[in-house]
Amino acid sequence: MRCKYIILLPILGALVGASCPSYDAIASKFAATLDPKTYQGFWYEVASANVFLTKGCECTRYNFSMTDDIHFTDIFTCNKDSPTGKPYVLENHGSVDPKTPGKMVESLGPVSPPYWVIQLWGNESAYDYSLVYACLDLIVTKSEYIYFFSRTSTIPEEQMSEMRAYASKYDIDLKNVKDVPMAGCTWKTQQAQKFSRGFLN
Ligand SMILES: *[C@@H]1O[C@H](CO)[C@@H](O)[C@H](O)[C@H]1NC(C)=O
Ligand SMILES: *[C@@H]1O[C@H](CO)[C@@H](O)[C@H](O)[C@H]1NC(C)=O
C-alpha cells in the first residue's frame, strides 16, 4: 500500500500543478487597460480551441457593445454546417473589471466564466486583432479556451504567427486550435461599418 502512495503522490502533484494562470501574469498592459468603447463592434472568430457550444459553426462573428460603463452584450452569430446554414444566435452578456477592463467575464446564464483579452494589436483608437483566453480550474486539471479575433474575417499569416507566439510564450496550449470556416460567408456589412464608426462615441 505505502508503495502505491509514494508513486501516486507526485502524479497528483503534477496534475494539481496544472492550474490556471492569473490575468496579470499573461496579459499585456495594452490589453489590460483597453478602452471598452474602442473594443466595441464586430469581432470575427477566425480560429479558436475548445469551444464546444459552437461546434459546426461557420462565419462566426460577435457584436460587442457596451450597455453602460461596465456591462456589455456580445451577440454571437454563426451559420451551422455551411455558410448559408441556419443562423445560430446567442445573446451573451458580460462585464469588464472597472480597474482592469481587459479582464472580462462573459456568459449566457448564471455563471460568469472569464473572458480575458490578453493581447491586442492595433492602436489606441482602433483595435485590429484580439487574443482572448479563458481558463477554468477543475479539481485536478484545467480547461482552456482560446480565441483568435479579427475585425475582418481573416488574419494574415504573419499576424497569426505573432498571436500564436504570444500564447505560446505563456504556455497556452494551441494544439486544439482550429480555423473557423469563413469561405462563402455573407454578413450585414453596412451595419457593421456604421457600427464600428462610432456607436456610443
Ligand atoms: C450590433 O449590436 C448593436 C447594439 O446592440 C445593434 O445596434 C446592431 O444592430 C447590431 N448589429 C447587427 C448587424 O446585428
Ligand atoms: C489606428 O489604426 C487604424 C486601423 O488600422 C488606422 O486606420 C488609423 O490611422 C490608426 N490611427 C493612429 C492614430 O495611428
TrEMBL record:
Gene3D superfamilies: 2.40.128.20. Transmembrane segments: none annotated. Residues 1-18 form the signal peptide. PROSITE patterns: PROKAR_LIPOPROTEIN (PS51257). One of its GO terms (biological process) is response to reactive oxygen species. The keyword ATP-binding does not apply. GO terms for cellular component: cytoplasm. Keywords: Signal. The keyword Signal applies. Pfam families: Lipocalin_2. InterPro entries: Calycin, Lipocalin_ApoD, Lipocln_cytosolic_FA-bd_dom. Belongs to the calycin superfamily. Lipocalin family. This is Lipocalin/cytosolic fatty-acid binding domain-containing protein. It comes from Cymbomonas tetramitiformis. The lineage of its organism: Eukaryota, Viridiplantae, Chlorophyta, Pyramimonadophyceae, Pyramimonadales.
